[in-house]
């Protein structure tokens, strides 16, 4: 199968045009006309992930977070990040990344997170600024305290800890909004949508103050919960593989790319 065949099918599901302006999605490195046999699905492309791809003889890496967020200023191979690029080229590994277009896609990242939290009656939350949906809003099966919901999130996403912003730990919540990744800046839209709780990651300190002043309960579960994309994308790719008889093997990355440790 050519790499382009998987890419074209994926872009029917999550068009590149739906990504936020300036988001460096799409082909990151390699040749889309290359024949590929084994696809490694990962959240991040880090040196250890590339080593995993090489050891497992994968010739395509499909990631959620882009390989190249910022322009490369040099290719000094004494820098581990640059050596990773060289290793990808040396081993003819194609890298493709789907970021905000996967976040906003129907049955994409934010829907997967909402499903994992067992939210009901889920609908999209729209942002005029970005002219697209930027999250999901759903309902818990019953009103739950902030403390209880925090504990359930730790179990759902296998977290050692999470940060909670709330005016009252015993506050009862029912309507929950979610934006995967760094979604703190979207909290005004979540309030406008009717949410009384918001699940996201990487909340900025001063934004946390604003959230608190506005009476919103926020659960910062971190960026790494987006690793839910690994099994979900793998399932999708296997379905397409069977339907189209591509003859590829889909491999789920087992490398932990979370940079944080809790002590």
From TrEMBL:
Binding site for a divalent metal cation 1: 65, 103, 223, 226
Keywords in alphabetical order: Metal-binding
GO cellular component: cytoplasm
Top-level lineage group: Bacteria
Pfam families in the cross-refs: DUF34_NIF3 (PF01784)
MF term (GO), any: metal ion binding
Binding residue positions for a divalent metal cation 2: 64
PANTHER family: GTP CYCLOHYDROLASE 1 TYPE 2 HOMOLOG, NGG1 INTERACTING FACTOR 3
Family statement: Belongs to the GTP cyclohydrolase I type 2/NIF3 family.
Subunit structure as annotated in this protein's UniProt entry: Homohexamer.
UniProt xrefs under NCBIfam families: YbgI_SA1388 (TIGR00486)
Name this polypeptide is given: GTP cyclohydrolase 1 type 2 homolog
Organism per entry: Pediococcus stilesii
């Amino acid at each position: 199968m050519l790499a382009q065949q998987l890419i074209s099918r994926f872009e029917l599901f999550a068009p590149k045009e739906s990504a936020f302006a300036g988001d460096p999605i799409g082909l990151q490195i390699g040749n889309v006309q290359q024949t590929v046999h084994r696809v490694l699905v990962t959240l991040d492309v880090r040196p250890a992930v590339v080593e995993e791809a090489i050891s497992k003889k994968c010739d395509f890496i499909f990631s959620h977070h882009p390989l190249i967020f910022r322009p490369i200023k040099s290719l000094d191979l004494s820098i581990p990040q640059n050596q990773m690029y060289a290793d990808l080229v040396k081993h003819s590994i194609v890298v493709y990344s789907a970021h905000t277009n996967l976040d906003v896609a129907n049955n994409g990242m934010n829907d997967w997170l909402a499903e994992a939290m067992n939210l009901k009656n889920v609908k999209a939350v729209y942002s005029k600024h970005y002219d697209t949906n930027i999250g999901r809003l759903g309902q818990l099966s019953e009103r739950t305290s902030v403390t209880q919901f925090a504990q359930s999130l730790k179990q759902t996403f296998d977290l050692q800890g999470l940060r909670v912003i709330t005016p009252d730990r015993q506050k009862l919540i029912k309507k929950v909004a979610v934006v995967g990744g760094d979604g703190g800046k979207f909290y005004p839209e979540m309030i406008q949508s009717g949410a009384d709780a918001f699940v996201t990651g990487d909340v900025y300190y001063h934004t946390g103050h604003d959230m608190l002043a506005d009476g919103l309960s926020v659960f910062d579960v971190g960026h790494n919960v987006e690793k839910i994309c690994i099994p979900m994308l793998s399932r999708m790719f296997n379905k397409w593989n069977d339907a189209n008889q591509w003859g590829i093997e889909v491999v789920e990355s087992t490398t932990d790319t979370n940079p944080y440790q809790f002590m």
